[in-house]
Amino acid sequence: MDKVKKITATVKKLASPEQAKILQSFFKTGPGQYGEGDIFWGLKVPTSRQIAKQFSDLSLAELSELISSPVHELRLIALFIAVNHYEQAKKFSEQKKIVRWYWRHRPQINNWDLVDLSAPKILGAYLRDYPSERQLLVFLSQSPNLWDRRSAIVATLTFINDGEFQPTLELVKIFLSAPEDLIHKASGWMLREVGKRDKKTLLIFLNKYVTQMPRTMLRYSIEHLSEAKRQKYLQKKRLV
User: Fold this and answer.
1) Cα dihedral 206, 209, 212, 213 sign
2) pLDDT one-digit tens code per residue, 19-76
3) CATH top-level class for 119-240?
4) Intrachain domains 1-92 and 119-240 with the same fold
5) Average pLDDT, the chain
6) Each residue of 100-153: pLDDT tens digit?
7) Burial class (CB within 10 angstroms; exposed 0-12, middle 13-18, buried 19+) of 114
8) 181/187 Cα distance (integer angstroms)
9) How far apart are the first and last CA of the chain?
10) pLDDT of residue 1
11) Residue by residue, what is the 3-state secondary structure of the chain?
12) Which tens digits make up the pLDDT trace of 204-238?
């Protein structure tokens, strides 16, 4: 039995119909919802991580087969293995191959957990180290695809962790008019991360854009501020 079939058999053996129902509701897989049609077999993330460790030597070709599965957990396992490949890659040529693989399979990275658990560690890490290619973030931010745009903003978590905030702030400005709540949440999350490392930078941004920020984005961004400061910004938003 080949490795992809072994992974599939392992996941199927550990499947939990009860957990699958919970996950399908949590990840909004119903008609018209953002995860419409996604299939869950009911594995929890730590279990998927453990399976990925067991099969960490899959080739990119095998990962392409795995990530093409309609089963969410199999796509997640493929991404965990790809992240490990990227973290182990030492040469630019190796990193580039993995990023190209990731870019090619964007259509399969189609729910928020798949994006959030992979974009910072592959796309973000690559663009941190090779800033000449950061136009990819602009391309993604202008995509009609929700997951492309979420990938762009979440990838900047890697920059934030290194104390570089401007790429995040520029993307958040683009997303002030985004219609999707999932983009508002991701943008607010990244602003909150900026504020944890540099409160002044966050406050300067809030003072300038608070009245333009969607309410969800604002609430996420101010979670770590004092109650008095949170109320100050929420009141400013209400007065508009």
Assistant:
1) negative
2) 999 999 999 999 999 999 999 999 999 999 999 999 999 999 999 999 999 999 999 9
3) mainly alpha
4) yes
5) 96
6) 999 999 999 999 999 999 999 999 999 999 999 999 999 999 999 999 999 999
7) buried
8) 10
9) 63
10) 56
11) CCHHHHHHHHHHHCCCHHHHHHHHHHCCCCCCCCCCCCECCCCCHHHHHHHHHHCCCCCHHHHHHHHCCCEHHHHHHHHHHHHHHHHHCCCHHHHHHHHHHHHHCHHHCCCHHHHHCCCHHHHHHHHHHCHHHCHHHHHHHCCCCHHHHHHHHHHCHHHHHCCCCHHHHHHHHHHHHCCCHHHHHHHHHHHHHHHHHCHHHHHHHHHHHHHHCCHHHHHHHCCCCCHHHHHHHHHHHHHC
12) 999 999 999 999 999 999 999 999 999 999 998 77
Distance CA 173, CA 111 (A): 23
pTM for the full predicted model: 0.95
Q: Evaluate if residue 85 carries a pLDDT over 60.
A: yes
Q: In the chain, what are the domain boundaries?
A: 1-92, 119-240
Go through the chain and tell me how many residues it has.
Answer: 240
Among 2.40.30.60, 1.25.10.90, 3.40.1380.10, 1.20.120.1730, what is the CATH number of 1-92? Answer: 1.25.10.90
Q: Could you tell me which of 11, 78, 80, 4 has the C-alpha nearest to residue 49?
A: 80
The residue with tokens 């910004």 is 233
Give the angle 157-86-14 at the CA atoms, nearest 5°: 90
Half-sphere exposure of 58 (CA within 13 A, CB side): 29
